[in-house]
Amino acid sequence: MSASVHEEGRGAPCTTADDPFQPRRRLVAERFDSGFTVAHDTYNGIGAASDGRIYYVLCSPLPDVGGRVYAFDPVRERIDLLGDLNAVCGEDRAGAVAQGKSHVPFLECGGRLFFATHVGWYAQVDGRERLGAPPGLRPYPGGHLLALDITGGRFEDLGIPVAGEGVLALAMETTRGLLYGLSWPRGIFFEFELPTRRARQLGPVSGGGEAGDGADYRTICRAIAVDPRDGCAYFTTADGAILRHRPGARSPPAPIAGDDLRKDYFGQYDPASPGHMGYHWRQTVWRAADGRIYAVHGNSGYLFRFDPRRERVEVLDRITSEVSRRSGMFDQFSYGYLGFALGPDGDTLHYLTGGPIYQNGRRLKGVDRIAMGAARGLENLHVITYHIPTERCRDHGAVFYPDGSRPTYVNSIAIARDGDIYTLARGPSGSATRTDLIRIRGPFD
């Protein structure tokens, strides 16, 4: 494994800097009010576009209320509501479970942003999320593929690639105009041709997916990586396989032969057990400078890179917070974190991760085991960077709101041209919490 340099980061020093189990730096997040009072947790659902604006989706947990799409202008600090997902999909009068969220990043090509919708309301069965419908509503019709013209603000509905299932992961091959996706809850891989508007299903790809029971249950990959040199798509299974799909192939994606993600450093997992991501990578970044896919394993926080041509995985470093390192414990969010992106310099990875909270010398603990991917207890949010050329990992500090409260449930990231970080986080809203856009001033490269 490569040696790396670990350093303290920027930000105001904490008053408890002499305590190794307290964050050494404190960052302050600005919070913006989008006016969506029911906004709930967003996973991915944010992006920095070429027009300089930050596009994001605030999700709805209600069965009859759609999620909403916004654009934030950092110069004027202005938020524009662009659309309601139900209305954009032509389902505002459908009487069905709403298009409550987007679970994928915004993918820019030819002046348009491509993304997809997902279900936001679930039936809870034995502590697990299942598709269903409350009285008076029809079942969820399926997630839509959407395109947004960033100049005119017009949406185009590209249709439903997998009927009755949400779109959980999405990636794009720009040369051929292909969208690659995974559905929830069965984990069906699909390829969508933009020129012909035709979807081809090539799955399911991992047991019964999250609809499975017992030995057939498998969590579904949240990130699809594309090698732009040949258009191949890569994603993982909970068992540790790295699957490859070649553009236009008619057969299901197949595991590569050269390597896998069943690494001792990542931990030991029962892939049929819910509540964790198993051996999946959590989030990925393509880096053109070296032709590698950089990824993070969620539970353990290990950074690694994958060479598609040599079919080799190289574990680099653990990029958890310094407090997590010293405590020796996994972080509280059992799935890991999706806020992982390459900065404007093309060399610096940015990671929004958790860190344990110590009060009166004791670590705040959550439950030991959960039935689905949710936080097991309260934690701090930390900004971590990893500079690839020098292998330098830095914890820049824990993030707080001006009133001292913490941004929580953070699983998204967008990095502006000036290096500022944007994400979607819960924050105080009266006696409850509400998710909205926040900004952490950079740059961090």
The geometry reads as globular
The residue-averaged pLDDT reads 93
Which radius of gyration do the C-alpha atoms yield? 20 Å
Structural class: mainly beta
- Note the total helix count: 2
Percent helix, as a range, is under 10%
Spatial separation of the terminal alpha carbons? 23 Å
> How much strand content do the residues show?
35-45%
Poorly predicted ranges (pLDDT <50, ≥5 residues)? none
Outline the biggest β-sheet: 10 strands, mixed
The strand count comes to: 34
Give a description of the structure.
This protein is mostly beta strands and 445 residues long. The chain has two helices and 34 strands. Strands 1, 2, 3, 26, 27, 30, 31, 32, 33 and 34 form a ten-stranded mixed beta sheet that branches. Strand 10 and strand 11 form a beta hairpin. It starts with a strand and ends in a 5-residue tail after the last strand.
What attributes characterize this protein structure?
2 helices; 445 residues; 10-stranded mixed beta sheet; 34 strands; mainly beta; 4-stranded antiparallel beta sheet
Secondary-structure map:
Blueprint: E1 5-8, E2 12-13, E3 25-31, E4 46-48, E5 54-58, E6 68-73, E7 78-84, H1 85-88, E8 107-109, E9 112-116, E10 123-125, E11 128-130, E12 145-149, E13 155-159, E14 166-173, E15 178-184, E16 189-193, E17 198-201, E18 225-227, E19 232-236, E20 242-245, E21 254-255, E22 281-287, E23 292-297, E24 302-307, E25 312-318, H2 322-327, E26 340-342, E27 348-355, E28 358-359, E29 362-363, E30 380-387, E31 392-400, E32 414-415, E33 421-429, E34 432-440
Parallel strand pairs: 1-31, 3-31
Antiparallel strand pairs: 2-3, 3-34, 4-5, 5-6, 6-7, 8-9, 9-12, 10-11, 12-13, 14-15, 15-16, 16-17, 18-19, 19-20, 20-21, 22-23, 23-24, 24-25, 26-27, 27-30, 28-29, 30-31, 32-33, 33-34
